[in-house]
Batch of 2 targets.
Target 1
Amino acid sequence: MSRFFSEKYRHLTPYTPGEQPKNRRFVKLNTNESPYSPSPLAREYAAKAAESLQLYCDPDCTALTEKLAALYGIEKENILFTNGSDEALNFAFMAFCDDAHPAVFPDITYGFYPVFAQINNLPYREIPLRDDFTVDVDDYCGVNKTVFIANPNAPTGIALPLSEIERIVISNPDNIVVVDEAYVDFGAESAVSLITKYDNLIVTQTFSKSRSLAGGRLGMALACAEVIRDLNTVKYSTNPYNVNSVTQAAGLGALTDDEYFRHNCAEIMENRAYLTDELSHLGFITTDSSTTFVFAKHPDLDGGQLYLDLKERGVLIRHFTLDRIRDYNRITVGTREQLDILLKHIKDILGGTP
């Protein structure tokens, strides 16, 4: 770092995104991107919007907001669109955490949570998952802090039932509870139905996974109107034009093409079951995933070495170095062809084939 870097950030450990290789073609199963391109309507709408890029984008995302409100059966005032759900999460840290309202979240979860807390100079506490990597809901009931729960969790893939999420929300009436639903479309229960029932609940979602727009950077926060106004205060104090015109148009096309969205989600869930079964036959232990990835370890393989061996063979998966999960790898669910390539290489590694 330079000698000019602010002292307040000198000990900041930034989030490490998954590898995006540029010098070699890989079977890329490391960043939970959809294996399917955006819907034809999303691409068509985006191309049309690109013709007017000399103009500023709509800061209110009006068309997009109206479409989502109709689709979800909520009011426009319950919605804030953001530059990926990461921005929505960061707004929540900024708006609802301080010395009197520290953040709390699991010790094994989305790696951006501690980064958001640190960069905003906010106190936080990490609560250990159980030995089986499940969230102990009792740890969050009446905790009287701002709660962040990824549901399903990442990188474990395990989901809590809606009744347990509601129990956390009910027990913390004077604190915001943020439910990060990046992977909710792949088998978990959404808490969106609760946002008009509880004024302390924020649900964040993303178009990156189920709607194939990871490169577009589009997410949203869903909450009661008063809380959305709070988040808008932060937004309009930082970046009013946070969602560009092309992304807004692509998002509108993706929401309009609901059949394409549902088909791709079903395909990914089917491929996830296939990958889980095949890995189990090879001796792997996996968690019960409700996401676009499988979290797996093999009793005879070092997790880090498996990652390196597969990378050498042209297949990228994600390995984490935290002590509790260093034997595991997170494997994105790709197409059947991609998964068969992965499985062939794993069989070769297990069999000692160079």
Note: The chain has two domains: 7-36+259-351, 40-257.
Target 2
Amino acid sequence: MLKFKRQFSVLFLLLTYNIASAQCAMCKAVVENGDISMAEGVNNGITYLMVFPYLLIGVLFFTLYSYRKKIKN
């Protein structure tokens, strides 16, 4: 079973590599052909999208911490 999972993972990575690299090239082309404000907008958008997963994980850990602390007392 482990061998099958490993083979499936390698096959999945090989098939999705071109899709993932194409997205990066498209973003790069937009930023290179645009002006400074467009590049800053793309960077701000990336930062905006990165913040929420960290916030959600922080809220989850805080909730688990307070729940476990409540159980111990």
Note: The chain has a mean pLDDT of 81.
